[in-house]
Design a protein that fits this description.
Pathway: Amino-acid biosynthesis; L-lysine biosynthesis via DAP pathway; DL-2,6-diaminopimelate from LL-2,6-diaminopimelate: step 1/1. The protein is of the alpha+beta class. The protein is built from 4 helices and 19 strands. A hairpin with a 3-residue loop joins strand 10 and strand 11.
């Protein structure tokens, strides 16, 4: 087995991960090991696996990419894999989970911003402590630039569920299609009644697989410039998750385009998070929780 004997379970608003520290770079996981650990019946269970290691120990990074990471101040890298064993470019909730774990392991300061390498570039995480209504061990993540496609350019359906909605493509370092349902275009059931165990279908087909978010606008305070929304997500590589950080950011981007509101409190099944969108970046604020340590036999 190419895994360390000790791993840790962490979640960030219900998006859960098996994580471990690999100082020497000797514990790069195989797809079979990832699938085993993330299995909720035969393993520990998780939406993905995160290895915290130095950028030079990540086999799919080029020397140029490693040099950029170090030049941008990232001494540690979030080597994130989906539960099905596939590589992932980015995971917003995963950045908070692995940063809390890095603090626990003594490789990140609990009071200072932490620069974390990811396959979507270096992300900066700032500890915020306890913040209502977002919870304990809250971090604000500078998620970086976003890119949006043509508004409502895709039809989104769910096999076995009548109706459809229109979706908008957003690139947050990984691909998303965001469908605001219960509007003039949508004939799907309400957000709470959707069957997201079944993988949604996006048409026309996007070249790479994508996460799909279904969103309802709950309230807008025009005076404060803040909106409230509810979101559910089917995440590629693991199915429906209780939360998806990049999906929340993609949702905030689409809601900004549709309403002109930059700041959103978005409730997912795992809790409430804050998304702040500007013309050139997105910031995500939410909690993280250490669950426990597991010794592999």
């Amino acid at each position: 087995m190419s895994l360390p004997q000790q791993v840790t379970k962490v979640h960030a608003t219900g998006n859960d991960f098996v994580v471990y520290l690999d100082r020497s770079g000797e514990f790069e996981p195989t797809p079979d090991e990832i699938r085993f650990l993330c299995d909720r019946h035969f393993g520990i269970g998780g939406d993905g696996l995160i290895r915290l290691t130095a950028p030079e120990h990540v086999s799919d990074l080029s020397r140029e990419q490693v040099a950029v990471m170090h030049a941008d101040g990232a001494q540690w890298f979030m080597d994130y894999r989906n539960a099905d064993g596939s590589l992932a470019e980015m995971c917003g909730n995963g950045t908070r989970a692995i940063t809390l774990f890095a603090q626990h392991e003594g490789v990140a300061d609990s009071t200072e911003p932490f620069r974390l390498g990811t396959r979507a570039g270096v992300k900066v995480l700032t500890p915020r402590g306890n913040m209502k209504p977002y919870g304990a061990n809250v971090f604000q993540v500078e998620m970086g630039a976003w890119h949006i496609g043509e508004e409502d350019a895709y039809e989104v359906t769910i096999p076995g569920t009548p109706g459809s909605a229109r979706g908008t493509f957003v690139d947050m370092g990984n691909p998303h299609v965001v469908a605001v349902i219960e509007d003039a275009f949508a004939t799907l059931p309400v957000v709470e009644d959707l069957d997201l165990v079944t993988k949604p279908v996006v048409s026309p087909v996007i070249e790479s697989d994508q996460n799909v978010e279904f969103v309802r606008i709950d309230d807008i305070d025009q005076n404060a410039g803040v909106g409230e929304a509810t979101m559910r997500v089917n995440e590629r590589g693991c199915g429906e998750t209780l939360s998806c950080g990049t999906g929340l950011c993609a949702t905030g981007v689409v809601l900004r385009v549709k309403t002109g509101i930059d700041h959103w409190d978005i409730t997912v099944r795992g809790g409430t998070l804050r998304v702040d969108v500007s013309a050139d970046d997105v910031r995500l604020t939410g909690s993280a929780t250490l669950v426990g340590e597991v010794t592999l036999l």
